[in-house]
């Protein structure tokens, strides 16, 4: 094969030297403390069967969607799902994208215009940052979950005038820290000043608000300009949706390039999301209760083992043990693997240098014994 250009070789070499080279892992048969399958939906055989049943009932037997949603790919299940999502999440409209990544780049590359300003939490997901970079608006980050810093940044930006639309973006549950911002205060700030609040609920849907997300739990659906919900995490499927007003949906259908210039999701993919939501409504309560009990137990054990200082405070299914240095985080993860646990190290540059960590994802199907054993092993290393 042709040789890699020298510049790329050098970038790879730097990654190796920084102990940060990424590689595609094998699928381990270890105790799962790392997947996003928070409610265990990917393990439910009945959901696979119900998806097939739904496709047969709708006589949708083709494997592919055959084109972009704007051409031939917009099969009937899209409308069914979007109508359902709007009612379930209490939104005027919903627009399904192929992934959360696509939803975020589609929104942020097309909605904020030249002359507008986006303020984003410094820890927002890469897809939000990439979308902002692709657009023409100015952008400023504010310190993580720090409303005072956000207010300072807004005051400092000289160029807000009558023509400037201000967008503020955050996550309901941060993917790498597991913590949450004060969403009510953010919503108030936005309402008072006519700013537009966008909340990525990727790690909150299926867990908070009886499954509907943290915005629903707080009852502030009407105060948010747009929400991003994803189906690849607690819902156990694939894809995402932007929940928003009718006019914004029309705008995105016309201008969000990650929606327009890509093949639509297959009937099977959409059917599985519909089934997952049915399942969430029917049986979700039990799984969510199990997950919540495990989160509580995990926190109790951290307290009992006097590990609190090493963990980032979180009430979600994501908990992080700070283990500064790529080498240290990798080593701890390797040791846990040898003990049978799958816990991923999060390395720089994914997180800031010095903030490398082990990231524990908790699930409804983890047992108390697994949690206890895991944390006791950690205690011996710390
Ligand atoms: C906060 C957040 N937003 C968006 C995404 C992207 O979602 P998807 O995996 O559906 O592309 C992720 C996934 O890691 C995420 O954590």
Describe the structure.
With 382 residues, this protein is an alpha/beta fold. It has two domains: 29-43 and 284-381, Aspartate Aminotransferase, domain 1 (Alpha-Beta Complex); 46-279, Aspartate Aminotransferase, domain 2. It is 43% helix and 14% strand. The protein has helices at 6-17, 45-57, 76-88, 100-110, 126-134, 147-156, 183-193, 214-218, 246-255, 257-260, 267-304, 326-338, 368-381, and strands at residues 31-32, 93-97, 117-121, 138-142, 166-171, 196-200, 226-230, 240-244, 318-322, 341-342, 344-346, 357-361. The strands form three sheets. The protein has a seven-stranded mixed β-sheet with strand order 2-8-7-6-5-3-4, with helices on both faces. A three-stranded antiparallel β-sheet has the order 9-12-11. It has a two-stranded parallel sheet with strand order 1-10. Helix 8 links the parallel strand 6 and strand 7 (226-230). Helix 4 packs parallel to helix 5. The radius of gyration is 21 Å and the shape is globular. The protein starts with 5 loop residues before the first helix and ends with a helix. The mean pLDDT is 96. The structure holds pyridoxal-5'-phosphate. Pyridoxal-5'-phosphate binds next to helix 4. The site of pyridoxal-5'-phosphate (PLP) has 14 residues, from helix 4.
């Amino acid at each position: 094969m042709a040789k890699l250009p020298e510049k790329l070789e050098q970038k790879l070499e730097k990654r190796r030297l920084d102990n940060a080279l990424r590689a595609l892992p094998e699928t381990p048969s270890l105790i799962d403390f790392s997947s996003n399958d928070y409610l265990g939906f990917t393990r439910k055989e009945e959901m696979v069967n119900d998806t097939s049943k739904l496709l047969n009932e709708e006589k949708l037997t083709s494997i592919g969607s055959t084109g972009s949603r704007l051409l031939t790919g917009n099969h009937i299940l899209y409308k069914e799902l979007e109508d359902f999502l709007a009612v379930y999440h209490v939104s005027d409209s919903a627009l399904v994208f192929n992934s959360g990544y696509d939803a975020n780049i589609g929104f942020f590359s097309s909605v904020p215009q030249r002359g507008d300003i986006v303020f984003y939490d410094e820890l927002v997901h890469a897809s939000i940052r990439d979308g902002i970079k692709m657009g023409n608006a100015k952008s400023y980050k504010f310190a993580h979950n720090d409303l005072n810093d956000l207010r300072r940044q807004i005051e400092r930006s000289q160029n807000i005038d009558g023509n400037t639309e201000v967008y503020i973006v955050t996550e309901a549950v941060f993917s790498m820290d597991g913590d949450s911002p004060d969403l009510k205060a953010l919503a108030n700030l936005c309402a008072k000043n006519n700013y537009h609040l966008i909340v990525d609920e990727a790690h909150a849907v299926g867990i908070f608000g009886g499954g509907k997300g943290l915005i629903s739990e707080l009852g502030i659906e009407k105060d948010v300009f747009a929400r991003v919900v994803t189906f690849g995490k607690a819902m156990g499927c694939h894809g995402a949706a932007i929940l928003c007003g009718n006019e914004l949906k029309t705008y995105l259908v016309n201008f969000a390039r990650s929606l327009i210039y890509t093949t639509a999701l297959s009937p099977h993919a959409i059917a599985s999301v519909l089934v997952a939501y049915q399942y969430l409504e029917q049986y979700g309560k039990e799984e969510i209760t199990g997950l919540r009990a495990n989160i509580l137990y995990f926190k109790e054990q951290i307290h009992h083992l006097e590990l609190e200082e090493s963990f980032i405070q979180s009430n979600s299914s994501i908990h992080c043990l700070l283990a500064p240095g790529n080498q240290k985080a990798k080593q701890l993860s390797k040791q846990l693997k040898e003990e049978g646990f799958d816990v991923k190290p999060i390395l720089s540059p994914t997180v800031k240098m010095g903030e490398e960590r082990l990231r524990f994802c908790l699930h409804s199907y983890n047992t108390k014994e697994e949690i206890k054993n895991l944390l006791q092993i950690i205690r011996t290393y710390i």
